[in-house]
Specification:
Layout lengths: L8 E3 L4 E4 L5 E4 L6 E3 L6 E3 L3 E6 L3 E9 L9 E9 L2 E9 L4 E10 L2 E2 L2 E6 L4 E9 L2 E7 L6 E7 L7 E8 L7 E10 L18
Length: about 210
């Protein structure tokens, strides 16, 4: 199902935002914008603009194509996000590094502590599809180079992720830089993450 972007709103606005002639959403970042909480670096950054919609639907999949070919500076990034508040969120993106490599990864933040699961990819990777699936307060993030074959990046839990959530896209430039990210191919539909069919839940598991 196509997505009506009029239902989306900003948590912090970017330097610029417009719809291109081909229908893509173009978002221009501000310098020194990022999302991170505490872990390892000991700083707390809660400055990235995120464009999101809200839902009570407990089972869904949200897909978007991200083009970051204009990124030229270390840590420039854009991707998919579930931003609940400053201390509870997840994001997935490719971060530009040095013209040789980039980092495809995801960050999950629970209770004000972030992790980062990442793998190196070539700097020639300049676009990526992401699919976010929700099963109640558990989430799966996948990526794809062609929008057809998706590979799992991670399965995670958001402690504050039950009930109504917000999800969408973000773009950020943590250092002294700015670039324009493009988002298209928005799709929202039934959960593409099938229920687990292996080991049964523990008897005392609270469903």
């Amino acid at each position: 199902m196509s997505v009506d972007l009029s239902s989306f709103s900003w948590t912090r606005e970017p330097a610029g935002c417009a719809l291109a002639a081909d229908g893509a959403l173009e978002v221009t970042t501000r310098p020194h914008t990022d999302l991170w909480q505490r872990t390892y670096y000991h700083f707390r950054n809660d400055t990235a603009p995120v464009l999101q919609t809200e839902t009570d639907e407990r089972f869904l999949s949200f897909t978007v194509h991200c083009d970051f070919s204009q990124a030229r500076h270390r840590f420039d990034q854009c991707g998919i996000v579930v931003y609940l508040d400053s201390e509870n969120w997840l994001k997935a993106s490719v971060e530009y590094e040095d013209g040789v490599i980039a980092h495809l990864g995801s960050v999950v933040t629970n209770g004000g502590w972030s992790d980062w699961a990442t793998t190196e990819v070539g700097a020639d990777v300049r676009e990526m599809w992401y699919r976010l699936s929700r099963r109640e307060d558990d989430f799966r993030v996948e990526c794809s180079r062609d929008g057809e074959r998706f590979s799992q990046m991670r399965v995670c839990h958001l402690a504050a992720g039950a009930g109504r959530i917000r999800f969408g896209v973000y773009a950020a430039s943590p250092e002294d830089s700015s670039f324009t990210a493009r988002f298209d191919g928005f799709d929202l539909g039934p959960c593409a993450w099938a229920a687990h069919d292996g080991q049964a839940p523990d008897a005392d598991w609270d469903a």
